[in-house]
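sorry to bug you again but im stuck and you know this stuff better than me. theres a chain ive been looking at and ive put its sequence and its fold in C-alpha cell form underneath. id like you to explain what the C-alpha cell line says about the fold, in plain words if possible. anything you notice is useful, everything is just below.
___
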Amino acid sequence: MAINQKTDVSNIKYLIIVMVLIGVTLPKLAVAYVGPGAGLTLIGSLIGVIVAILMALGILLSWPLRILIRRIRGMQTTKTEHQNRPAQAVNSVSSIDH
C-alpha cells in the first residue's frame, strides 16, 4: 500500500482547521466575575475616549469656519474704524524722535 504524503498533509491541515473552528464556536461557561468598580471604570474610560475623539473631530472640522468668521469680523471692524476715525496725520512719529 502506497502512502501519498501530499494527501495526508492536506487532510491533517483540514482536520486541524475544522477542530479549531469547532472549538472556537462552541459555547463555554465563563467562570469570571466583573465587579461594579471595574465595570464602571471601563465605562468611564470608554466615554472619555469617545468624547476626546469627538472633540478632536469637532475642532478639526470647525477650524476653517472659525477662520472665515474671524476674517469677516476683521473686515467689518476695519470698515467701521475707517468710517468713525477722525483724520490723522500721515506721519505718526512721536515727538521723542525730534
